[in-house]
Amino acid sequence: SGAANMIFVSSMMFSARVSDVRMGGTYMTLLNTLVNLSGTLPQTLSLWFVDRVTLSTCISSETVTSCYLDKQPCISSGGTCRTAVDGFFVLVTLGLALSLFWKWKLAPIFRKLQNQPLESWHVSSS
Predict the structure, then answer these.
(1) Per-residue pLDDT tens over the stretch 19-43
(2) pTM, full prediction
(3) Residue 55 belongs to what H/E stretch?
(4) Residues 6+ apart with CB under 8 A from 125
(5) Any idea of the CA torsion for 54, 67, 84, 78, to the nearest 10 degrees?
(6) Please, how many CA atoms are within 13 Å of residue 51, restricted to the half-sphere of its CB?
(7) CA dist 106 to 34, 39, 57, Å?
(8) How many Å apart are CA 88 and CA 84, to the nearest integer?
(9) Three-state SS at 16
(10) How far apart are CA 31 and CA 123, in angstroms?
(11) Mind listing the pLDDT tens digit of every residue in the chain (126 residues)?
């Protein structure tokens, strides 16, 4: 939570630093909105994907079927749902791969943006 707060404060400082004073708070509000959406949307999608990438099967005396998103038919037939692959670990692995890609391939692009002069972030008057 402390690291998340530091990232939030640093992104707000970035928005305050690059916002154009001629536009007032509108530009800063737009930048903050984009930052907030980029922080909350991946969390929501990750939680939604956990159940979809979890592989579980219904083991009953009759057959072995899937328990995908609905365990009630399995339980009502006297079976038990067993998780074969937990979606959490799948998403952690995908997140690690994505972060390594981000670090090695996209970091130079963001460094270039970071090194731009402040005037390049402002709205041009022409």
Answers:
(1) 777 777 788 888 888 888 887 888 8
(2) 0.61
(3) strand 55-59
(4) none
(5) 150
(6) 9
(7) 19, 18, 39
(8) 12
(9) helix
(10) 13
(11) 688 788 888 888 888 887 777 777 788 888 888 888 887 888 888 888 888 888 888 887 666 677 776 777 777 878 888 888 899 999 999 999 998 998 899 889 988 988 888 888 777 776
Q: Which token pair is 27?
A: 């530009």
Question: Which pair of tokens denotes residue 15?
Answer: 């928005």
Task: Read off the tokens for 60.
Answer: 């009953």
User: Cβ contacts of residue 49 below 8 Å, gap of 6+?
Assistant: 87, 91
Q: Give the tokens for residue 68.
A: 């995908």
User: Residue 36: its pLDDT value, please?
Assistant: 84
Q: How far, CA to CA in Å, does 64 sit from each of 31, 73, 125?
A: 51, 12, 68
Task: Burial-class residue 44 by CB neighbours within 10 Å (0-12, 13-18, 19+).
Answer: exposed
What Rg, from alpha-carbon coordinates, does the chain have? 23
